[in-house]
Request: fold
Amino acid sequence: MVSRLVLILGDQLSEDIAALREADRAEDTVVMAEVMDEASYVPHHPRKIAFLFAAMRKFAAHLEGQGWRVRYTRLDDPDNAGSIPGELLRRAEETGATEVLAIEPGEFRLIAALEDCPIPVHLFPDDRFLCSHAEFDQWAEGRKELRMEWFYREMRRKTGLLMAGDKPEGGKWNYDHDNRKPAPDEITFGGPMQFTPDDTVEEVLALVEARFPENFGTLRPFWFATDRTQARQALAHFTAHALPRFGDYQDAMLDGNRFLYHAVISMYLNAGLLGWQEICEAAEAAYTAGDAPLNAVEGFIRQIIGWREYMRGIYFREGPDYTRRNALDHQRKLPGFYWTADTDMRCMARAIEQTRDEAYAHHIQRLMVTGNFALLAGIDPHEVHEWYLAVYADAYEWVEAPNVIGMSQFADGGIVGSKPYVSGGNYINKMSDYCKGCAYEVGEKTGDKACPFNYLYWAFLHRHRDRFGKNPRMAQMYRTWMRMSDEKRQATLDSAEAFLGKLDTGARV
Ligand code: FAD
Ligand code: DLZ
Ligand code: SF4
Reply:
């Protein structure tokens, strides 16, 4: 029998993948490799690199325990070829293998590299997802608008999650009107489960410290789960202690609390340590047992079988040029404070500091703080995309790009969102306690002390009036803008121009 290689990438750490199902434990060799190409195509947060390397090493050991022959390359291995195709060729020469089995990577960049590899690579679909590319395309075909809500209902029907026969549990598909409460005074959840580094993790931390000393991000204290058992413990901890209040406060932000009632499991799910099914089943079981209310459980399940699957569908449907889209023709460079948190805007400083310290920020911080600011300030969406891809432990293009290019920056021209997610300081003030301690005044609309989100918001609408002026969902905002006096409108535009001018010179804002 011809021997083959089975490639397992850093975000494919699941036993139940097609490439392993197809392979022969007695004849084939699993290949896993820590390589500089993957570790540096963007300046990843050190915690993301350490998490993946530690989880890869533990997964390799686990496979060996299951009787698989594994060739594992460490980053500091002197023979390390530096890239995934390079490692495949090296291992093929060593073993005499003539073919590679793999599941489709989550980025077009790497799919292209595998397709160009001199040794034939058989790519299987990544069936760890609920919706295949073909199924998504079938759903999307002929629709004028690809709205997530309709897709989500299909996924509810398909999985039977929270279904009472063919009707949604409780009579409604979506309970968001019960969610989105402002930040509470007290958070009763102590945060995600944290794990003390073991020897494998410590070894990786030392490697990452030595090899990536300049990357943005704090490595220690490192507390992520790095194997499936730990990730399942983290999931159980969330389900028992935070899920009941997840819905209520999913859009809230608090200066003194980085995690609120969020699950903090996306890095485990995206790397393959958890599966969507077990997560959703755990949430549904909490509802059935009366431990968590429907608004929380429905909202949570919607994020996973709705948003997550929908985003992946969009990425693969739209193709490799998606990350270069720039529908609003935004050209400004990403301000330096995205890498330093050195800004007087407290909401921005807090979201960036937290990103630096944890490789994590929750959805509303990503969307309505750092994303909102980039959009209002007209930052080049590709630069924004590269920042998000680098700084979050859960970031891979298939999920990051539709969230950033589509949902957050409207750079796809309205495929993901029917209108841009923009807001002035009022929204941030309502949902957080950031504004209280800010150098800017959220109640001020113009002038040096005014919250920059306020005038940038109106200047954004004004700049893009030809595109958005006729959007019925934005009509109210344009009416408000046009009702302002000429002087007020001019003062607003002048404040925005002065601020953006400062931004362009690199002055502190
Ligand atoms: P929770 O808030 O507890 O939600 C539960 C789960 O739902 C998450 O773990 C995640 O798997 C899923 N989920 C929720 N929202 C989304 C969404 N919009 N898209 C996909 N899955 C979702 N998520 C990533 O996994 N990787 C990214 O690179 C990423 N980049 C983002 C960039 C921007 C600009 C925005 C607005 C969102 C991005 N998201 C990304 C989605 C979301 O912010 C994260 O999934 C979430 O913050 C992860 O934290 P959590 O596990 O505590 O999630
Ligand atoms: C993100 C990442 C990093 C930092 N390093 C590696 C690595 O050394 N080896 C590997 O197999 N995978 C790594 N990854 C994950 C890949 O970049 C990921 O599989 C692709 O981006 C596709 O999603
Ligand atoms: Fe952010 Fe404006 Fe509030 Fe300051 S006043 S924290 S800049 S929203």
